[in-house]
Amino acid sequence: xxxxxxxxxxxxxxxxxxxxxxxxxxxxxxxxxxxxxxxxxxxxxxxxxxxxxxxxxxxxxxxxxxxxxxxxxxxxxxxxxxxxxxxxxxxxxxxxxxxxxxxxxxxxxxxxxxxxxxxxxxxxxxxxxxxxxxxxxxxxxxxxxxxxxxxxxxxxxxxxxxxxxxxxxxxxxxxxxxxxxxxxxxxxxxxxxxxxxxxxxxxxxxxxxxxxxxxxxxxxxxxxxxxxxxxxxxxxxxxxxxxxxxxxxxxxxxxxxxxxxxxxxx
Length: 266
Hints:
Blueprint: E1 3-11, H1 17-27, E2 33-39, E3 44-49, H2 53-61, E4 67-76, H3 85-113, H4 116-138, H5 143-173, H6 181-204, H7 214-218, H8 221-239, H9 243-264
Antiparallel strand pairs: 1-3, 1-4, 2-3
């Protein structure tokens, strides 16, 4: 029976399914990788391979996700769960559609509600959509094509984040009417359900039991952002001030910009 290596990595900053796709794309050009198994709640990745794990570690380290090699052992080939390309493509299309729907919904209601928190969260949804879209193109695509798509998507996302950040600063300087806290809370709660659905679909595909632990939801930055906008909307209501909305907007735009830099690093 053929035996290959299983390298286990702890990736401290891997807490979103979109980051899983970034890692998949980063490792896609390494020959000798037979399968990948992700455990997002525990922030671990198991790589089944026939190569030296040092090359794999270097690729992961370039993403700046605080990666450490835990161990490397030999395993039997039949124990490996190889990725099903057709199933993966179908799954990516589903989560892409969900994220893009909420991007459109939040950017429209963000403008209507005059909420920077909702606008920033819409860009966060767009950022995930770009990652899932790139992952779709990456299936069966060439390395050069993947690099070009990642570069364009990263710069586009970074530009939007800078524009959003500038608008937040403008609103800090020039007082405007309060954002609609009702829309902020309602739409963010709706988006929270959308993110939970994406996490469920992604985790269900890896679990024979098809159940979702609470930790699978609350380790996601996207869900934390949704909760942040809900809290900001509540504070706008209680304080009669636009500053909670602007503050969450700044935080999310910074997260979006950081995500754009990670995409460019692909």
